[in-house]
Amino acid sequence: MPLIRVTNLARTMRDLQERHNVWIVGTAGEAESGIYEAKLTGSIALVMGAEGDGMRRLTREHCDQLISIPMAGSVSSLNVSVATGVCLFEIVRQKLAGQ
Question: Where is the tRNA/rRNA methyltransferase SpoU type domain (predicted)?
C-alpha cells in the first residue's frame, strides 16, 4: 500500500480521481456515513485530517465520500494514528471479503 506525501494535496486528489479513477475517502467526525456502512473496495485513497483541526475545507471538498468512525461510551474521538489503523483495517477487511 503506497504512502504518498505531496505539496499540493488538492491538485493531487483531483489527479488521482480524474487520471487514475481512485475513490477518495476522508474521515470526519460529523460525516453522515459510518465506516462500516461505506463501500471501501476498489482503488481507494484515504485522507486523514489533523488532530484537533481535522481536514481543511478544500481537502474536504475534493473527497468523494466522508466517513466517520462510530464511538462508544464517553470516547468522542481517536488520535489520528489510531483512526488511521481502524480505517485501514476496515479497507483490508472489505477487500479480503470481496475475494
Answer: 2-89
Residue matched to cell numbers 475517502: 25
Element (H, E) at 67: strand 65-68
DSSP three-state, residue 2:
coil
Comparing C-alpha atoms, which of 12, 18, 13, 27 is closest to residue 62? 13
Question: What domains are there in the chain, each with its CATH number?
Answer: 9-97 (3.40.1280.10)
Quote the CA–CA distance of 17 and 79 in Å, as a whole number.
Answer: 27
In whole angstroms, give the CA distance from residue 86 to residue 22. 20
Instruction: Provide the whole-model pTM.
Output: 0.87
